Amino acid sequence: MKKTFTFCAVLCSLGIVHAQQYLNTWGDNMYGRLGTGTKTSFNTPQRIGTANWVVADGGEFFSAGIQADGSLWTWGNDSDGQLGTGVTVGTADGELSPVHIGTDTDWKTLSVGSGFTLAIKTNGSLWGWGDNIDLALGSGSSKDLYVPTQIGTATDWKSVSAGDAHTIALKTDGTLWAWGDNNFGKLGRGGTVDASAPVQIGTATDWIMVSAGQECSFAIKADGSLWAWGQSTTGGANRDAPAQLGTATDWKFITSANNSHFAIKTDGTLWAWGNNFVGQLGIGSGVSPITPTQVGTDKDWESAANGYMHAVALKKDHTIWGMGAGNASAMSSPLGSNVPVKIGSANTWVSIASGNSHVLAIGGTGATAVRESSSTTMISLYPNPSRTSVHIRVPAAILNICIRNMAGQPVYRGTETEIPVAAYQPGIYSVGIIFQDGTSATEKLIID
């Protein structure tokens, strides 16, 4: 989710140098949500301009993203102000190409819901705009917001996940917050009363990742345990407060949309459960399991994203795989598949996201890649996972170190072997080192 690199960038990814990190989109293009300048649908990745992108996400009929310079862009349907352009009488075909929103260049990350967006700036402030009929913006009212508007005054927001009609977020102190529609108790606050502003959920301070789904919510704790609440995803009673899902403590990634759910364990295995009526879970059948079911046997999955009838997943080798309805998941075939199928031949993808019926990915088409020389030198990182600082131990002379987040963005370059990481968002990072003998090596770092 980002540049033209110099020498030190050779180590800034998992074995690949990304000379450019373009935005690519594909799938259904109703209302111009692909950003290609037309309403023509595509089942293969289409590059959107030549800019470098940090993050992109899709909603029901629109999309939004942040470029490398911190600028904010939106495109697609604007019927409820979801593009943030300030237009109060929206139109279905709002914008067929990305439109620059405002002049601020300090946008850090964002999450797109069905018809609204939440975003965090580099100073930790939270902003929202778009459809607010379900209170999902957290502004204190149900009034739609037509331009990015700060939500409250807090400046310690770390991550946010926009669902279909509610939002889940984390603060830098590890606390869990929710607001919006509370059908089935999906806010986790107890009961089913909606919340028009952020409400803290419980008192725990060890949450590291969240995902707001359609009628349920998920979160992962620092100990690797997975928690769920809202409409039951396991066939039991609905839950109005977070409850641990199973007993495993090796979960590292979770995402949910349209009542289909994907999770990844620390061993790189991919798991799925929930709606599977067109094989979008990739488990080889149309059965909808109520418990996490392993997708194939591969152990090199990094992330996943899903829409209404499709899902895509990213591997450690920077390839994208699709499953479900063919036209929606752009699997280069209208036939679809109930097992993961590789999309194209590109191996330079660094991030993926999904709207209801379209996909957004950064890297890929038009990006160049240079393979690093490998080294037998082992990198020791401790503690790992880490929350405050990480120590790097290697038995060889270091020329340079680069830490890169899952979006492919360098967050550190230098030579120090004790690096503060408290300011980084929780997630998976790669630590790349170039040694003075010209060889290089990488190791995974988990920040919780």
Q: Could you name the key traits of this structure?
A:
Immunoglobulin-like, mainly beta, Methylamine Dehydrogenase, Chain H, 1% helix, 448 residues, globular, 44% strand, 2 domains, four-stranded antiparallel β-sheet, 1 helix, disordered N terminus
Kindly describe this structure:
It is a single chain. The protein is mainly beta. It is built from 1 helix and 35 strands. The strands form 9 sheets. Strands 2-1-28-27 form a 4-stranded antiparallel sheet. Strands 3-4-5-6 form a 4-stranded antiparallel sheet, with no helix packed on it. A hairpin with a 3-residue loop joins strand 27 and strand 28. The two termini are 20 Å apart. The model is unreliable at 1-19, 328-332 and 367-377 (pLDDT under 50).
Compact description:
The protein is an all-beta fold and 448 residues long.
Helix content: under 10%
Let me know the CATH homologous superfamily of the largest domain. Regulator of chromosome condensation 1/beta-lactamase-inhibitor protein II
**How many helices in DSSP terms?**
1
Low-confidence stretches: 1-19, 328-332, 367-377
CATH topology of the largest domain: Methylamine Dehydrogenase, Chain H
Average of pLDDT = 86
Rg, alpha carbons:
21 Å
Strand segment tally: 35
Largest sheet: 4 strands, antiparallel
Question: Outline, from the CA principal axes?
Answer: globular
Task: Kindly name the structural category.
Answer: mainly beta
Strand order of the largest sheet: 2-1-28-27
By CATH, the architecture of the largest domain is named 7 Propeller
Number of discrete domains: 2
Taking the alpha carbons of the first and last residues, their distance comes to: 20 Å
Name of the CATH class of the largest domain = Mainly Beta
Percentage of β-strand residues = 35-45%
